[in-house]
Amino acid sequence: MMVDEKKIHVKADVILKNAGILDETGTFYTAKTLVIHKGDITAIVDAGEMKGVDETGAEVVDCSQLVITPGLVNLHTHSPMTLFRGLAEDVSIDDWFNREIWPYEKNLQASHVHAGALAAIYEMINCGVTAFADHYMFPEAIMQAVMESPIRCDLAPTLFGLSDTIETEMEACRSLIKEHQHTNSRLALRVGPHAPYTCPPPVLKTMVAMAKELNTGIHLHVSETAAQVKESLKVYGKTPFQMVAEAGGFDVPVIIAHGLWIMPEDRLLLSEATTIAVSPKTYLKLAMGHGHLWDDSMSLPLASGTDGAASSNTLDPLEQVRLFGLLGKHFHQDATHFGCQTLWKILMRGHEALPFQSGKIAVGAAADLTLWQLTQPGVAPVHHPLAAILYSSGPQQVAHVMVEGKWAKKDGRVNMNHHHVKNMLTEASNHLMTLGKGSIPFTF
């Protein structure tokens, strides 16, 4: 954390006084004041040292009972799938996809997606999330929801390479990125191949080429199950990771969703611009197996995702990284493994995969912050602030959330119309259930 102890001359929109600060490295500082102007952190000083700070018209917040951290990132989700929360429980992964979720998704409309995304954004902000990476259909509807809210989004329109209309869909994706990339500081776009098993090699290669052409990245599912790896080896003689590499996928910034069954030889393929978003709650619920993510995890570029609410039920990346660490201790039968600093690094790495200049408590960094209230019973006493957040906290401990220096959640209330969001979600879900299931052209 860069701390400016010298005389400073800065303006202020918001001043967060007397806070505890837990930075991106997991280092804790006491009694610091953050100065925020035009969406960025412009000064960090000792509490009481405000010489050179123009406080005229600034909002001053007493944070003496709060801990400030960088905001959380949900690096892989399908935000509109709040529509399906609890719909497919206690079924096999094959039935989850083929008999429940994909048939309902066949009848999705843009209005459903807009409502589901709004509800997801509300939930994520409540959990302390300031940015998320989304992967879904009807991208314009998701963009609309993002613009109606205070959050940041890195959006990858889902492309199924086996679709009869894939060429039209790819051209629509290209046009969308060309039209909207760099038009809003809270929105970024990339190409979203669904997965190697739904995007045959020539199509996947074309999608990667499009990402290169547009100077952006890709976001796709890779090696989610042992069966996917086995089938890929049978059909192509290569693992799904090798299929992505052969298509040039690791030549661009890439978010790998899950990668649970990454093989030892796959690790050599990863580039410095690769991040793997892990969602262990989904793996547990759908009985997807041990996989290989917990084998020498620290050599992998892991970050926290939630998958969609249809599989993980909640959209809290803190819950996911907590589960990841506890499973790691259990699998290795070693309580010293997957310590707090390691889990915090995984949680913070999501910022590095996104283009928003967030994820640091430092002068010049984006003021995307989560402010934690850790004094309540159930969390207090706080002997170890990092442990208190990782192991004892949830949305109820998130007092405030700030994105670009503006309040996304204040005094425990998300800055969105709760009743409007709830009513839209209910109406969309009811309509979708009335439409029922459609037929799907391929299976998981």
TrEMBL record:
Pfam families: Amidohydro_1. Keywords: Hydrolase. Residues 67-407 form the Amidohydrolase-related domain. It comes from the Bacteria. This is Amidohydrolase family protein. It comes from Anoxynatronum sibiricum.
